[in-house]
């Protein structure tokens, strides 16, 4: 069964933010506290803008740099630092709003890991 904050609810949140009319209840979104029966919109915003990813990046940088290098190799290659995640997502959201049409697909080869 799905739990509060599950990624399926994040996808639904994105779809509703994008204009789709989907009946829903904010109690399933990240940021909802069942015990306090309150929704923390700031916690949801942090999730949307990758604060949890940023925190994990910083943790790995301090505790296991080799794993950080492995898991975030593409971020490192693109110069994305943990404190730049919110800016990255802000730019991505702006680009999507400017031109929501899908990008052209290019051929790619799957690498064995």
Could you outline the blueprint of secondary structure elements for this entry?
Blueprint: H1 7-17, E1 32-33, E2 38-39, H2 41-48, H3 51-63, H4 65-71, H5 73-77, H6 85-98
Antiparallel strand pairs: 1-2
Helix pairs in contact: 3-4
Question: Can you put this structure into words, describing what you see?
Answer:
It is a single chain. With 113 residues, the chain is mainly α. 51% of the residues lie in helices and 4% in strands. It has six helices and two strands, in the order αββααααα. A two-stranded antiparallel ribbon has the order 1-2. A hairpin with a 4-residue loop joins strand 1 and strand 2. Helix 3 crosses helix 4. It is globular, with a radius of gyration of 17 Å. The mean pLDDT is 87.
Spatial separation of the terminal alpha carbons:
31 Å
Helices and strands, in order, run as: HEEHHHHH
Largest sheet: 2 strands, antiparallel
Helical amount: 40-55%
Mean pLDDT: 87
- Physical arrangement of strands within the biggest beta sheet: 1-2
Q: pLDDT under 50 segments (min length 5)?
A: none
Number of helices: 6
Tell me the number of strands.
2
Percentage of residues in DSSP E strands: under 5%
